[in-house]
TrEMBL record:
One of its GO terms (cellular component) is membrane. This is Spore germination protein. InterPro entries: GerAC_N, Spore_GerAC-like, Spore_GerAC-like_C, Spore_GerAC_C_sf. It comes from Halobacillus dabanensis. Residues 23-187 form the Spore germination protein N-terminal domain. It is a lipid-anchor.
Amino acid sequence: MKRLAILSISTLLFLTSCFLQEEIVDDISMVTVIGFDKGEGEKILATINVPFHQSNIEVINKTYQTEAVFTKDATDIGTSKSDTPMVIAQNEVLIFSKELAEENLMDYLDSYQRDPSISTRLFVAVAEDKSAPLIARNNSINQDIGVLIGKMFRNNIERNFLPQTNLHLFLYDYYQPGRDPFLPIISKDEEQYQVKGISFFKGATYKGEIEFGYETMVFRQLRESFSHGAYTFETKDQEWASIQNVSSKKSVDVVLPPGEKPTIKINVKMNGFLREYSGEKIEEKTIKEISKQMEDSIKEKSTELLGMFEEWGVDPLGLGNEIRKNKRGWKEKEWEPIYEKVNVDVNINVTIKETGVTS
């Protein structure tokens, strides 16, 4: 009898908690993406997306726009326009206009980094122009816009050439001596969102960008090891080679000769499979030639990127941090004046294997 009573009470408590949880979820608006643009005067314009899931699995995206002095105030003001309180704990993405990125993003990210309810895995991105048009799509798509953009970023990290990125990693690069952060650039056409490129920062101020594709592949190779990727390479003979299952391993060696300039050696080992080739015949010699041409091309692009980083005064590869780890008494203020004088030697080794090649 006691067991039956305990079971009945437990069941009642469980059902009650379920109803309470449902009531709580129904009584709040879960924000999944926020975009920030310049507003009037010192204010910022926030475009906030709240998805509403219907019983027929349809998703209705409702957009709110508010102006505020501080980023976190935007959702508080947005609550006054909504019939339920706005909650940002499940927010997937923050998007900043390029105009705001050219100022100091930490002015806008500071409140988010101090909020324990915010996931540090939150994606942060820069809009190609303004952020509002990326979000204010209302019901043009039957998906949660924030979740959709988050999935796009994760897919490009796991299967393409977007380096690992989120709020935590941006803050790590921002605070770590001898490193500078970067963020993906997002755009959209009439139907789809896409990663347009990568933007680079000195501190938290935008300084320059590269296009998504070959440039971001090489940047990722110089920055981190990764697996999975695909690239179509044009040879000197104007043939096309489709390289699949691209993986890349990176290592760094630092040489600090007494009284001389430091040398940083970045070693990249790239592997891939040749799946398609536009030429007439594939021989072992052809594969070796493609591998050698890719090595030369990646090395040339690496030199070009390093020159761009020096020109912008940014260190997204963490070269200063590599020296810091190998030199006692390293000081960041002493590093910046010699950044342009450091010898950076990039060694590229490409191994391509043939598998099911079609012409």
